[in-house]
Amino acid sequence: MYNFNFCCPTRVIFGKGAIEELPKYIDRNKKVLMIYGGGSIKRNGVYERVKKALEGYNLSEFGGIEPNPKCETCMQAVELIRREGVEFLLAVGGGSTLDGTKFIAAAAKYEGENPYDDIMIKGIEVKDALPLADVITLPATGSEMNDGAVISRIATSEKLPFHSEKVFPQFSIIDPETTFSLPARQTINGIVDTFVHVMEQYCTFDVNAPLQDDWALGILRTLIKEAPKVLSNPADYDARANIFWCATCGLNNWISQGVPQDWATHMIGHELTAFYGIDHAQSLAIVQPRLLKNQKVSKAKKLAKLAREVFGYNEVVDLKAADLAIDAIEKFYNSIGMKTRLADYEIDSSEAAEKIRERFKLRDVHLGEKGTVNADTAYDILKAC
Fold first, then answer.
1. Is residue 373 a part of any domain in this protein?
2. pLDDT tens-digit readout, 243-294
3. Residue closest to 146 by CA, chosen among 188, 213, 194, 80
4. Looking at the structure, do residues 127 and 200 belong to the same domain, yes or no?
5. Last residue of a domain, one of 127, 143, 178
6. Domain co-membership, 164 together with 64
7. What does the pLDDT look like over 154-173, one tens digit per residue?
8. Which of the two ends of the chain, N or C, has the fewest CB atoms closer than 10 A to its terminal CB?
9. What range defines the domain where residue 99 resides?
């Protein structure tokens, strides 16, 4: 196991009625900005519950954060914050709203002229950010218990991540009942997103970290078990709760301590979303099986363990078991209604492969746990998609 330095300062308030506990954790003397997305929280009652819980607070609102949050929209919120002297940010909605809020928190305190270029592209350290918290209503990104966010920019068709300890949520409220009304597409996206998050941290090479492996495989087993339940009965509280906690634990860094990580599927998938506008999870489901096939030899031991301990195969030859695992992952995605080919979204694989190869060449990209996924490798993977 590698050395590691772990910190997660986020408090999690989980369960029925958790939203009503908001006043316990926000200073009544702070000027608060509630940030949300396209209006789903008004349809499902979450908006009213938050407003009621924060009655008497100095509360402003900013709506319109998109799925795959856009830098351009976030900077409008930054202008409002500076104009009104906002002191605390509360994201209410899904992971995109929270990711956008993290960028807003950093950009509002940033003294440079172009926070996207500096933070996202140049990797300049975030030295300060507004305090933030969230009422998270969609199990997917795991952003509610980590220091990361992914932000797009319309002007340049880019979608890039950043990390900073300054943007850890102070607290996250998770009430699984808020997910009862989610459209099936969003539920499916969240399950796939979580599955791939776990695989990016688990499916590399062995460094003798059995606890991390078992945590990761336990999350995957739970997702596979609970997914059919929640899709057949969207109001199944226990299934919703189990899936939500899987999503949170899938990216709160517990399973990634002391082990190598991949993230090539995500970085290639981000480019598909940036160029073609498909959902984040859709891009992951397209890329991941082909990337695993491409990298099968170096990942064979972990894939074989996945085949045996999650999908129940008895194949003793690691490379054969690896093939079974990859096929089983794609079948699982298909079984819950997730498509896994570029053609399913009327995207030409040759065009996508060439676009992303050229972008990766310009950036001199080397991805994966061993840095072996370069522009040409990405081209081969996408051609096979």
1. yes
2. 999 999 999 999 999 999 999 999 999 999 999 999 999 999 999 999 999 9
3. 194
4. no
5. 178
6. yes
7. 999 999 999 999 999 999 99
8. N
9. 11-178
Comparing CA positions, the residue from 241, 228, 237 lying closest to residue 336 is 228
Q: Residues 46, 104: one domain?
A: yes
pLDDT in tens, 311-365: 999 999 999 999 999 999 999 999 999 999 999 999 999 999 999 999 999 999 9
**Of the candidates 55, 45, 49, the residue with the CA atom closest to the CA atom of residue 179:** 45
HEC profile of the chain? CCCCCCCCCCEEEECCCHHHHHHHCCCCCCEEEEECCCCHHHHCCHHHHHHHHCCCCEEEEECCCCCCCEHHHHHHHHHHHHHHCCCEEEEEECHHHHHHHHHHHHHHHCCCCCHHHHHHHCCCCCCCCCCEEEEECCCCCCHHHCCEEEEEEHHHCEEEEEECHHHCCCEEEECHHHHCCCCHHHHHHHHHHHHHHHHHHHCCCCCCCHHHHHHHHHHHHHHHHHHHHHHHCCCCHHHHHHHHHHHHHCCCCCCCCCCCCCCHHHHHHHHHHHHHCCCHHHHHHHHHHHHHHHCHHHHHHHHHHHHHHCCCCCCCCHHHHHHHHHHHHHHHHHHCCCCCCHHHHCCCHHHHHHHHHHHHHHHCCCECCCCCECHHHHHHHHHCC
Q: Do the domain assignments include residue 21?
A: yes
In sequence order, what are the beta bridge partners of 161? Answer: 150
pTM of structure: 0.95
